[in-house]
Design a protein that fits this description.
The chain is an alpha+beta fold. The protein folds into three domains: about 90 residues, SH3 type barrels; about 80 residues, no CATH class; about 150 residues, no CATH class. It contains seven helices and 21 strands. It comes from Secundilactobacillus silagei JCM 19001.
Length: about 375
């Protein structure tokens, strides 16, 4: 996805958490394994295996009894944080050991690290909980376990997005096959003796971004070619010229593009040429922080003719009607020495065209005038 490449990619990375793909430890943005210097516990031995995702070395625990209270304490032993019997299906991961008087204590964390504290060792048994879904591995390596893009291909087969406990469905990804998905990480979950890999992804819904775990087997590598109900698709999010043409044909916001294509009836639209026009020769609104430095190589094309005056006119008159815009485009092409009679003969050229025709985009409401994106480009070139 590009608005300008740098800004859009940075926004995408930040929204999906991809900045932590290579972070060590992977939980660097989460609470430290350090213990308060005035902790009530003695002989403390820190255990960073869970925080560092060393699942072959971690020490997992589960409750010996889910019927008895088993309190989790803060470092100072002044506050009960949680009663573990309220979470009978959890596996608890060791982050430190220590003593208090003659008693042994273990500081443990749930998988999401939202519940961390000290528990009397006598309440716990080593090993994963046999109930529910338990995370036994976590991986960040790309491209198998992180990165992307991926998409859900089937609009009929359920592809549930679960919370980390696998008890709450956050979304059904079969309803979002028009989105590209990026894995932040993957986990292996064990349930009833079977282990399955799940990927952590984020999907945009009408209620905002929703993140969770989906079975990795339900994701298809590559970009989606389903652009239904998508107002804007950026130039690098198409997989082929055929994909791009389908979008132009079906999108309600591509009426101007369709009318401009008709001005070059014998010059076929080409995705590569369109990407060159969009990134190298366009007039567009730049979002905050975008320097516009996203030019692409023109390799594979020659004799490129750029209609800068057209893209500038469309940008300057982006609020005008399509009829007004097309009339202006025709006039400018004629003035540039490309009347209809000449355009009809441009059979050996490829048409590069990409337009976002002053379209409102919700996530840009505070970054562009009126929250709208305008991006116009027109060029032709010959394939080498």
């Amino acid at each position: 996805m590009r608005i300008g490449f740098k800004t859009a990619l940075a926004g995408l990375i930040a929204s999906l958490g991809l900045l932590s793909l290579t972070a060590v430890p992977a939980h660097a943005d989460k609470p430290s394994i350090a213990v308060a210097p005035n902790a009530a516990f003695k002989q403390i031995k820190l255990d960073g295996t869970f925080m560092y995702n060393e699942y072959t070395k971690i020490t997992p625990y589960h409750l010996k009894s889910t019927k008895k209270s088993a309190y989790m304490w803060n470092d100072l032993y002044t506050k009960k944080l949680h009663n573990l019997k309220s979470y009978p299906n959890y596996t608890w991961y060791q982050t430190a050991t220590g003593t208090k008087g003659n008693s042994k204590y273990v500081r443990v964390s749930n998988f999401s690290e939202t519940k961390v504290g000290w528990v009397w060792a006598g309440y716990l048994s080593k090993g994963y909980n046999s109930k529910g879904y338990q995370v036994t591995r976590k991986r960040y390596g790309r491209p198998t376990y992180a990165g992307g893009p991926f998409h859900v291909a089937s609009t009929t087969k359920n592809a549930y997005l679960w919370d980390w406990t696998h008890t709450k469905v956050r979304a059904n990804l079969k309803d979002y096959t028009n989105q590209n998905l990026f894995k932040r990480h993957s986990v292996r979950m064990k349930h009833s003796g079977k282990e399955t890999w799940y990927a952590y992804v984020t999907v945009k819904t009408k209620h905002g971004d929703v993140s969770g775990y989906v079975a990795a087997s339900l994701l298809t590598p590559g970009k989606t070619t389903n652009h239904a109900n998508t107002d804007v698709v950026y130039p690098d999010d198409f997989t082929s010229t055929t994909d791009y043409l389908e979008y132009i044909k079906d999108s309600n916001y591509q009426k101007l593009t369709r009318s401009m294509m008709a001005l070059f009836p014998n010059t076929p639209v080409d995705l590569g040429m369109s990407q060159i026009a969009a990134h190298n020769y366009s007039n567009r609104i730049y979002v905050d922080g975008d320097d516009g430095d996203d030019a692409v190589s023109t390799k594979g094309y020659k004799d490129i003719i750029v209609f800068r005056q057209v893209s500038k006119y469309l940008f300057d008159n982006r609020a005008a009607s399509n009829e007004t815009k097309i009339a202006g485009v025709k006039k400018l092409l004629d003035q540039a020495g490309y009347p209809q009679s000449k355009r009809d003969k441009m059979t050996d050229y490829k048409l590069g065209i990409y337009n976002i025709n002053n379209v409102p985009i919700s996530n840009l409401w505070d970054q562009t005038p009126g929250g709208k994106m305008a991006w116009y480009s027109l060029a032709v070139g010959k394939a080498e």
